[in-house]
Design goal:
InterPro entries: Peptide/Ni-bd, SBP_5, SBP_5_CS, SBP_5_dom. This protein is α+β, with helices and mostly antiparallel strands. It is built from 16 helices and 19 strands. The chain starts with 54 loop residues before the first strand and ends with a strand.
């Protein structure tokens, strides 16, 4: 069904990355899973001490939102979670989902029922065995409406999951079951070839039921954290740093080469780069002002990444209840200027919401098939603003405020937008900078009029990006609702004919950009500087930093 996924290598990349993280986000950002890649998805590092231990020094950018896998649904949480915990499957070096905590996977002939056999030697970092009940506990915790997990929608393909999460069903009706201690069974509502890929997302990691029941705050401190990944959380100085040690109880501990991983939390790209130069970090992004200077560095590494940087409108807050006014602001943005003179990371301008890298059943690139849905058009922007103001009876536009979470790169982008809105629309927009955790919380509460965001794919399918904007989605955060759009997403998920499904996906991208509750800026890539001697760090186009096979000489 999704055999067409082929992420394209950005061969023309010559420039390097200016830190920008979302969703952190995701992702980017803690503002969602969508935080920009730089400050999160790339990780960063230093030099090992004279102790003989292999210690990798990285930079997480900022404090993880949460190490509860159901809550930490963003880039600043994912990179860490993917290494101190592990799901039933894990992405390999070819970005394919393979057996991980599960050693065997059986699929029924109708494609609806998956039976996972958990490894006998799968253990938690405290020595407890990982059992099927830990997955049942974790997945029900994610879907519990009281948890308010932003990731819950990802599990809606499981029979009974959506009903429980939306308050219309019972936890007992979710089609997940521990047949015995080592057998976990899941039944889907319809066949889904992306299922094994989807459950590599940290939101589907297990939780030690015994530990979490005894202490609901188990995930908030290193002393109480219990994971099942290649590493264990050994120290956590909140808002300063955290540290991993090799997990001796991990089922595949023999494959893990590093002794420790130290993560700084430095949210300034220049400071991060200076730490890299002084061997305090092993990996770093590059400040935009040094992009030209370092573009030919032997230490430069370029990786694909599926996601984008964008801005949201609050469609319940004036003046953005009006579609023409939203579109006026979206068309007033020169995306080429943003990527060429502000971010300078060689990104591709985003003229639709679905990123490059998805190949359809016709063999054509999704983005190229759909074409440019939003472009820089000053005259049309002015016309739309005038018409929209007349429709609303405005003689003067209400005050406009652009909100963004604390980051040098976010600020630079906001300043560029502010300048363009003044130049094209004559609008004097104000800027509001907000601390990361507060920003995410308030954006979810619809407190911002226009706010920055990012999106990193949870799984390899265009619908993953598009489904974020259905009515009531925790990822929507715009208050926009459109029944035609909702129906399109439902039809996409139920359509088994690949050609018809592809047409529906294109229609959804077009409708989203026509209504414009959001306007895209650029698509992500991952460019990092990596010290000689560092090897084996996996960065997946759709996925998370994986240090299981990382090494350092």
């Amino acid at each position: 069904m999704k055999k067409w996924l082929t992420f394209l290598l950005m061969a023309m990349l010559a420039l390097v990355l200016a830190a920008c993280t979302a969703n952190k986000d995701a992702g980017k950002e803690p503002d969602e899973k969508t935080d920009p890649a730089p400050e999160t998805e790339e990780g960063e590092g230093k030099e090992e001490t004279g102790s003989g231990e292999k210690i990798l020094y990285l930079n997480n950018g900022e404090e993880p939102t949460s190490f509860d896998p159901s809550i930490g649904f963003n880039a600043v949480s994912w990179s860490a979670l993917n290494n101190i915990m592990e799901g039933l499957t894990r992405l390999d070096e070819d970005h394919k989902a393979v057996e991980a905590t599960a050693e065997k996977i059986d699929i029924s002939d109708d494609g609806l029922t998956y039976t996972f056999t958990i490894r006998e030697n799968a253990k938690w970092s405290n020595g407890d065995p990982v059992v099927a009940g830990d997955f049942v506990f974790a997945w029900k915790h994610m879907l519990n409406p009281e948890t308010a997990s932003p990731a819950a929608f990802l599990a809606y393909f499981i029979d009974g999951a959506e009903a429980y999460n939306t308050g219309e069903g019972s936890a007992d009706d979710i089609a997940i079951e521990a047949k015995d201690e080592k057998t976990f069974v899941v039944t889907l509502t319809s066949p889904n070839e992306a299922f094994l890929n989807i459950i590599t997302n940290p939101s589907f990691f297990p939780i030690n039921e015994k530990v979490a029941t005894a202490d609901p705050t188990w995930h908030t401190e290193a002393a109480t954290f219990v994971g099942n990944g290649p590493f264990k959380l050994s120290a956590w100085d909140h808002d300063v740093s955290f540290e991993f040690e090799k997990n001796e109880h991990y089922w595949d501990a023999a494959a893990v080469k590093l002794d420790k991983v130290h993560w700084a939390m430095v949210n300034d790209s220049t400071t991060s780069y200076q730490m890299y130069q002084s061997n305090e970090l092993d990996v770093s992004g590059v400040p935009s002002e040094l992009a030209d200077q370092l573009k030919d560095s032997d230490e430069l590494r370029i990786d694909d990444q599926a996601g984008l940087y964008f801005y949201r409108f609050n469609t319940s807050m004036e003046p953005f209840q009006n579609k023409k006014i939203r579109r006026a602001f979206g068309l007033a943005v020169d995306r080429d200027e943003i990527v060429n003179f502000v971010t300078k990371n060689g990104e591709k301008p985003a003229r639709g919401f679905v990123t490059y890298g998805f190949i359809g059943p016709d063999g054509k690139e999704f983005r190229e098939s759909v074409g440019d849905l939003v472009s820089y058009d000053p005259e049309e922007a002015k016309r739309l603003l005038e018409e929209g103001m007349k429709e609303e009876g405005y003689t003067e536009l209400p005050e406009i405020t652009l909100s963004y979470n604390t980051s040098e790169s976010h600020q630079n982008i906001a300043i560029a937008l502010q300048s363009k809105f003044k130049e094209v629309l004559g609008v004097d927009a104000k800027l509001q900078q907000v601390e990361g955790a507060v920003f995410l919380s308030e954006q979810k509460e619809f407190k911002y009029q226009m706010s920055r965001s990012s999106f990193l794919h949870d799984y390899a399918d265009p619908v993953n990006a598009l489904e974020s904007f259905i009515t009531g989605s925790s990822m929507n955060r715009t208050t926009w609702s459109n029944p035609d759009y909702d129906k399109l997403i439902t039809d996409i998920k139920n359509e088994t004919d690949e050609n018809k499904r592809w047409e529906l996906l294109q229609q959804a991208d077009k409708l989203l950009m026509e209504e414009m509750p959001v306007f895209p800026l650029y698509f992500y890539n991952q460019t990092t500087l990596e010290k000689p001697g560092v090897s084996g760090i996996l960065r997946h186009p759709v996925g998370y930093v994986d240090l299981k096979y990382a090494d350092k000489k």
